[in-house]
Amino acid sequence: MSQNLYKTDAFTIEYIPGADILKGDFLRCKTSDEYVSAIRAFKEAYERVLPRYTFWDNTRFGHIITPEEQKWTDAFLNYPGAQKGITEKVGILVSQDILAMLSVYEIFEVGKAPLRPGFFANEKQAMEWLTRKETPVAPLPDTKPLIAVEWDADNAKAVIRMEMEAPDLPYYLNRFKRFLSDHDFLVENLRLFQELTRRERKILSMVINGLNNGEIAEQLFISCETVKTHRKNIMRKLGCSSYSELLRFGLFL
User: Does domain 3-131 correspond to CATH entry 3.30.750.24?
Assistant: First the structure.
């Protein structure tokens, strides 16, 4: 038997003691206020029961969570919960609103909490995964999407169509967004990369592959000081102030 812990016209929370699952159900979520109110209520219930599993019914979820709200959700709910080391799995029923569902997925991509939720098309699938005794790793898509390419000869355009299971949609949409982000980075920084000499590009490649100054110097038959000079010039030309920024230029190599 489940226990009703919270109920409004927009959001309900119930606890299933036998399975140790805390379930939040979005009956309606179209605004930021409705979303924030639901997250606050869920955290209060979470602190009361400290469940082994959490389960979100997002089938009626229609709010596109902003980047600021994504960070807030991670800092307010996900990260503190993960720090307690109690909850093992998070299951989510997918919304038919694609952009809203993608914004939910991104919370776990950009956040600090080491949580990887499972996305499911129906409650039966989610409950079986949540209660199954296994390592708490969310399932990745079992199959590749079916891809069809159609050629629009009149407009000289190609149309790509992809067919996949509903729970796999956030996974592939997020990777498609990363592809577009990488493309934007390449376009915006091509001029900077072209300013590097052939030797600088070689050293950049070696740095990105994890070689230290001594290893680079040995392989290129130059001194460590020369390597340091090259690295400073590379950082300056590319406008990088950290190693993590430099790594992004590996897209050119």
Answer: yes
| Rounded Cα gap, residues 175 and 35, in angstroms | 25
Q: What is the pLDDT of residue 48?
A: 96
CATH of domain 195-252: 1.10.10.10
CB of 246 within 8 A of CB of 192? no
Run means of pLDDT, 10 residues per run, the chain, 253 residues: 94 96 97 98 97 96 96 96 91 92 91 89 91 71 86 86 83 83 93 96 95 95 96 96 93 93
Amino acid at 74: D
**Residue 1 in tokens:** 């038997």
> CA-to-CA distance for 156 and 80, rounded, in angstroms?
52
Task: Return the residue matching tokens 């089938």.
Answer: 59
Phi, psi values for residue 5, rounded to 5°? -105, -20
Q: pTM value? A: 0.72
What's the CA dihedral at 219, 223, 226, 228 to 10 degrees?
80
